[in-house]
Amino acid sequence: GGQPRNVQPFSDEDASIETMSHCSGFSDPASFTEDGPEVDEEATQEDLEYKLKGFIDLTLDKSAKTRQAALESLKNAFSSKILYEFVMERRMTLTDSIERCIKKGKSDEQCAAAGLAGLLCVQLGSGIESEEIFKTLGPVLKKIVCDGTASIQARQACATCLGICCFIVTDDITELYSTMECLETIFSKAYQRDRDTNGVSGTHSTVLHISALLAWTLLLTICPMNEVKKKIETHLYKLPSLLSCDEVNMRIAAGETLALLFELARETDADFFYEDMELLTEKLRALATDGNKHRAKVDKRKQRSVFRDVLRAVEERDFPTETVKFGPERMYIDCWVKKQTYDTFKEILGSGMQYHLQSNEFLRNVFELGPPVMLDAATLKTMKIPRFERHLYNSAAFKARTKARSKCRDKRADVGEFF
C-alpha cells in the first residue's frame, strides 16, 4: 500500500471544510444564486473526486496528523455531498483504511475514523455493501467500546458509530440484539454507580455512558415489539436514577429516553400502567423548573426546555410537533421515535442534514419522504424571491411586529387623586 508519487502533500488548507465548499454547493438548491455565472458541474465533480482520491491515499500516510486530516476532509465531503458511485467503487479501500486507523491510531484518529465509518454507511444506505462494511468494522468497534484501556473519546465515537451502522444494516436480528447488549453493558454501569454513591457523579466516563445510551435508544426504535417489551421492563424503572446525575447532558439523555420508552410502552399496551408515576412526575417537574444557582444558566435553560416536553409526554401523552424545512419541502417530527432518529443523524451530518434529507434515498425512506424531488436550475431560480422584494417584505413585517408589540406593552397607569 505505498503512496503514489503524484499526490500532492496534504496541508491544513486542504483539510478544512472550505476546501470542499466551492464544490459541495453546486447541486444544493439553497446555494443557487440569481445572477451567478454558469458552472461546469461535470468539471467540478471531477475536481472534487480527484481531491477525494488524494485524501483516501493519505489515510495510509506514515504521519498520524496527515491521516487524521485526510479522514476529517473525507468526513466533510461525505456529509455535504451525495457521492454514492464514488464511494461504491472504493468502499473496500475505505473500509480497510478505517479499520487500520481504528486499530492502530490514537484517540483523535480513532474518533475521525469512526465518524467516517458512520458516514460511509449513510452514503451507501441499507444494502449488501453496508452489510459487508459492518461485518468488517462491527467487531473492531465493539472491541474499542468495551476496551477499558482505550480513550473515553474513542470509545464514545465508536459507540455512536456502532449504533448508526447497525441501524442502517437492520437485516440480521441477532446482530441487532448483540449490538444492543454491548451498548447496555456500557450505560448500565451508570446505574451501578448510582447505587454505590447515592447520586451519579459527573466523571469523565459519563460522556461514554451518554453516547451508549443514545445509540441503544436509536436501535430500540427498530426492534420487534416483543423485544421492546423486554427492554422496557428491564430499564424503565432504572432510568429515573440517572435524572440525578451531575452532568446536564446525562439528565437530558435519560429524560428523552424515558419519554421514548413511555411512548413505545403505550403503543404496545394501551392499558400500560407505571407504578411510581407520582414520584417520577415530581422529579420531572423539578427538573423542568430547576432554579439551582450553582448550575450554569445555559444548562438550566436547555434542561428546562427539554423536561417540559418530557413531562408532557409522560403525564399527558403529548408531543410538541416540530417542523423541519429543507428546500421546497417540509417534514413534521410528531413523536419521540422520529425525534430520536432525526437528532442522531443530524449529529453526524451537521450542516449537511438538509441536503441529505433532499437527496439521500436511504434517509428519505427512514423518514417516509418518498423519492427525491427533482428540481432543475430554472425552477429553483423562479422559486427564489428577488432580493429587493425580500427587503420590502421584511421591512413591512418589522413595522407590523413593532406596532403589535407596542399595543401589548403596559402603559403607565394614571395614579388618580388622593383624598
TrEMBL record:
Start and end residues of each stretch annotated as Disordered: 1-38
GO CC terms: nucleus
Protein name, per record: Interferon-related developmental regulator 1
The organism's taxonomic lineage, starting at the top: Eukaryota, Metazoa, Chordata, Craniata, Vertebrata
InterPro entries: ARM-like (IPR011989), ARM-type_fold (IPR016024), IFRD (IPR039777), Interferon-rel_develop_reg_C (IPR006921), Interferon-rel_develop_reg_N (IPR007701)
Homology family: Belongs to the IFRD family.
Pfam family, one: IFRD_C
The encoding gene: Ifrd1_0
Residue intervals of the Interferon-related developmental regulator N-terminal domain: 19-315
Quaternary data: Interacts with PSIP1/LEDGF.
A GO biological-process term: cell differentiation
UniProt entry keywords in alphabetical sequence: Developmental protein, Differentiation
Transmembrane portions of the chain: none
Organism: Nothoprocta pentlandii
Domain Interferon-related developmental regulator C-terminal: 360-413
